[in-house]
Specification:
The chain has helices at about 1-20, 160-165, 170-190, 195-200, 290-310, 315-320, and strands at about 25-30, 30-40, 45, 50-60, 70, 80, 90-95, 105-110, 115-120, 130, 140-145, 155-160, 205, 205-210, 220-225, 235-245, 255-260, 265-270, 275-285, 325, 330, 335, 340-350, 355, 360-365. With about 375 residues, the chain is an alpha+beta fold. α3 (about 170-190) crosses α4. It starts with a helix and ends in a 5-residue tail after the last strand. About 25% of the residues are buried.
């Protein structure tokens, strides 16, 4: 009998000891147990964007005390913790995670000495995918396709010549350089910074982009980074290199004829290569083809400089409009004020406005028609 009683006491003692070591998130309140329980999962994963999130809990047999909440010491990306605005809910905000890696911190809720520990993991934006479209790149144009890490992410995607890019010591410096340019352009257009960003800069979703009027045979950098309308950086910068094609000289000649109806004239040309685009014009005098090409290129360069003021169009648009392909005839031209003049034709690179052949020439005397 004594053995049996001793065994029963030992068993009861073991049960008591086990119960005292088991955490049940409760305490006595007027003889009733108060319980503080998590409704949300203890492991919380949130997206990389800046946002506000909620943790839900329940209290059984509340005492009237308040729930408090705090993040791990030194956690600067979790803020605005609010445990008092709504029963059963604790709100917290996270800043954007543009660091390239996920991050983690603890968040502890407390009530009447009872604690609930949560772990918050914030994902990072993955990188942008930037693909240079080589088959669309020319001597004056680079085309690319950019896919952001998230369809909801607003971002900037632009191009810079590599020589300028290399003068900056960090991505942050270059982004600040962009921001200064955006501010200047917003002021020029009499827009707020936010309006300018939304109207002219920010993109969303997959985009097919291009830049025209670039320098031939030059290295460039195509880049993208996440940003919102206020200029807050949302995702880090990704970039890739690209190059414009060199301007190639064309082995082409032109058979020229001139019709005069003083004081006007027209020039007709038949090129030896019907794929080549070309220009026809008249030169006041009888200089060599080399001198004519040099003088004409200077004039074309002046036109290119004035294009933004005159039409706002691109170099490509302008030269596609004024150039010829295959046999062609000019509109009426004024006959120069010289007894002899030179009609000529030259191949043209429509992307840059650069002459790409020697001049085919035809020296003419003025026909007054009598």
């Amino acid at each position: 009998m004594k053995k049996h009683i001793a065994s029963t006491l030992i068993a009861a003692l073991a049960v008591l000891s086990f119960s005292s070591c088991t955490k049940d998130n409760g305490r006595e309140n007027d003889g009733q147990k108060t319980q503080f329980n998590a409704v949300s999962e203890r492991q919380i994963t949130v997206g990389p964007e800046a946002a506000t999130h909620v943790i839900r809990y329940e209290i059984v047999n509340p005492t009237g005390a308040s729930v408090t909440a705090e993040a791990d010491a030194g956690t600067d990306w979790i803020s605005d913790i609010n445990s008092t605005s709504a029963y059963g809910e604790v709100y917290f905000s996270v800043s954007v995670n543009n660091g390239g890696e996920s991050r983690q911190a603890g968040l502890t809720l407390s009530y009447e000495g009872i604690t609930l520990d949560f772990t918050v993991t914030q994902e990072a934006y993955s990188s942008f995918s930037i693909k240079v479209l080589e088959d669309e790149c020319t001597s004056g144009k680079i085309a690319w396709e950019v896919t952001p890490p998230s369809e909801d992410l607003t971002y900037v995607s632009m191009i810079a010549d590599k020589a300028t890019w290399d003068t900056f010591g960090s991505f942050e410096e270059y982004i600040e350089y962009d921001l200064e340019y955006f501010r200047e352009q917003a002021e020029v257009r009499n827009l707020s910074f936010e309006e300018f960003m939304e109207k002219y800069v920010l993109r969303q979703g997959k985009e097919h982009l291009s830049a025209d009027d670039l320098t031939p045979g030059t290295d460039y950098i195509v880049y993208a980074y996440g940003m919102n309308r206020t200029g807050e950086l949302l995702a880090g910068m990704d970039y890739t290199g690209a190059s414009t094609l060199p301007v190639e000289q064309k082995d082409v000649t032109f058979e020229l004829t001139v019709e005069q109806d003083f004081p006007y004239m027209t020039i007709s040309a038949v090129p030896s290569d019907d794929e080549v685009r070309y220009l026809m014009d008249v030169y006041n005098g009888t200089d060599s083809p080399e001198v004519i090409v040099e003088s004409y290129q200077e004039m074309l360069d002046e036109i290119i400089t004035l294009l933004p003021l005159l039409s706002g169009g691109s170099v490509y648009d302008y030269f596609m409009e004024v150039s010829f392909q295959g046999p062609g005839t000019t509109d009426q031209l004024m006959i120069p004020e010289a007894m002899e003049f030179t009609a000529f034709a030259v191949a043209i690179d429509v992307y840059t406005g650069q002459i790409t052949s020697g001049a085919s020439t035809l020296v003419c005397e003025i026909d007054f028609g009598f």
